[in-house]
Amino acid sequence: MIGKLESPEGARQNDGIAPVFALPGWSILSLTGTDALAFAQAQLMNDLTRLADGQWQWNGWLNPKGRVIALCIALRRDAESLWLLLPDMPAEELADGLRRYVFRSKVVLAPLPDWQAAGRITVTCEVTECAIREGSDGALTLPLGPLDDSRISWRQLLLLPPGADAVMTDMESWSRWLLADLRAGLPRLDEQQREQFTPQMLALDRLRAYSVKKGCYPGQEVVSRTHYLGKAKRRLQRFRMPAGTDVKPGVAISNENGEPLSTLLNVVECDGHSEALAILDESAPAYFRDQQLERLPLLDLLPT
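The chain above was modelled as a monomer; its predicted structure follows.
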């Protein structure tokens, strides 16, 4: 995932009005039925029993080798309804994968293409609990925490129901959104990056996005073994990169001898440079174009 931020000043709120903008790539998968939550509990990597109606958590689906296929927000609507909010994977694609395991479970998997995912950046301080607010028009709001560590601006994820006015894409606002994801260490996995990394490699423990205690799910044995035998040797790192057209996902970074160490996951251009995520040893110096890269900390911007 790559974004470009031209001017942070350009997206400041005017007269207290916070514009709503589309979030490209987001989709929603609905699971309904008497077995919906039990089915999801057996397939997804986090413990859904922690959720009450109207609450959400970071979650995801793994392959049997413990590699992340999809990262999502799991939102419990009620005792027989769960929504999976997917930032990168088409809902129909995930539905096709999950349907192979339905068997006799009483669950219906249905993408919700008529709902729109939108973002809003406000100057109003939000309580960063993992709970939704539902408006009189049926729109749902999920507070996603501060935009950056200044804690001046705050992010909201909006789910707009069928019939709502179409929301336009604003590249400036979307890039600010992607930069906040990157700085918070929220990996955005495109098709080439799926099934490559374990939850520990992606530092998803920071988001409490998986469980090692809830029981069996695909990949659980690998996740638990890594947890109990020691942390992953390679882990998500944030870097400051020199600006350039070839700074993009998939580009290799190397050690001091020019030997490849890893490739870039997410990249956002900002203020004459780029910021990027990559997975590698926490102590390994990393280089790009013979220049040592500056490591930056991951910020606690997301509610967990």
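The radius of gyration is 19 Å.
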